[in-house]
Amino acid sequence: MKQQPAQMRWERHTQWPLLALAIAFALAYAVPIVAPDADSWVRELCSVTEWVVWSSFAVDYLVRFALTPDRWFFVRTHWLDLIAVLLPLAQPLRLLRLVSTLTLVGRRARMAPQIQLTTYVGGAVVGLLMFGSLAVLQAERGAPRGNIKTLGDALWWSFTTMTTVGYGDHAPTTGLGRIIAVGLMLSGIALLGVVTANIAAWFISRFNKDDEQERRRTAAIEALTAEVVSLRAELKQLSAATLPSQTDAAADEPVR
Q1: CA torsion angle for 184, 190, 194, 196 (degrees, to 10)?
Q2: What is the C-alpha to C-alpha distance for residues 247 and 54, in angstroms, rounded to an integer?
Q3: FRET partner for 78 with CA separation of 20 to 30 A, picked from 40, 149, 161, 255?
Q4: Is residue 91 scored above 50 in pLDDT?
Q5: pLDDT score, position 226
Q6: What confidence score (pLDDT) does residue 248 get?
Q7: CB count, 10 Å around CB of 235?
Q8: Contact 50/29 with Cβ under 8 angstroms?
Q9: Distance CA 129, CA 158 (A)
């Protein structure tokens, strides 16, 4: 049995614990925003949880960096993890590590490419809706002219913004809220493009598969036709060669 590289073994053993930590971080980030009047010990527990989760992600990144044979390639292909480690104060940004961990888990799953991509897109949509709702609620709740005051308002606003519908009944008024809105709109357009491209690729692959089968059938028919023509030519030659022999034999036979 072929032994797996050390980095792959580490990722295989840590993917589920990291997923649990990412969910714990999302909850710790959400509780103070959804329940701003929570007791001080709850807020303190959430803060400690966030730092513990961030430290775990930092250790995970450093271990994988030490185990990889090509460290420069690792840094270039895991830039999102590096940002999450280097920006511990950017609390909402670390929620993207949840999407990264879900991607790692999905990469291990044995699914068809279309199902796998659909899973990724679904996870990204849920993560962005959660991130956008919590972030805009935190930014707009205390704004004097803001009209996003509850989690329901924030979720509705995030959904209409991601789908680029934009009813206008809820809109951010702060600079941070508008930056979040731009990010959600761009993310929604990008996800829509991914879904559209995936559907188009599926249809093209089906058409190519049908064309390939049709070409194979046509080639088989042509080969069979050529073989039949060749057999006819051989039979004709055999018939032509046999007929003179029979004629000569009849001529040589004595008359009785």
Answers
A1: 100
A2: 101
A3: 161
A4: no
A5: 86
A6: 56
A7: 10
A8: yes
A9: 6
Rounded Cα distance between 154 and 166, Å, is 13
Helices (H) and strands (E) counted in the chain, each on its own, are 8, 0
The upper half-sphere exposure of residue 113, i.e. CA atoms within 13 Å in the direction of its Cβ, equals 8
Stronger pLDDT, 153 or 80, i.e. the higher one: 153
- 41 — pLDDT class (breaks 50, 70, 90): very high
Residue 197 is inside which H or E element, if any? helix 175-252
Structure tokens at 22: 């990412």
Burial 15-35 (b: 16+ CB within 10 A, else e): beebeebbebbbebbbbbbbe
Q: What are the residues whose beta carbons fall under 8 Å from the beta carbon of 158, sequence distance 6 or more?
A: 128, 129, 132, 133, 136, 184
d(CA 3, CA 7): 12
Q: Which amino acid is at 153?
A: D
For position 204, what pLDDT does the model report?
83
Phi-psi region of 255 (alpha: psi -120 to 50; beta: other; left: phi over 0): beta
Residue the block writes with tokens 């023509």: 229
What's the pLDDT at 142?
A: 85
- Cα–Cα distance measured from residue 184 to residue 186, given in angstroms and rounded to the nearest whole number: 5
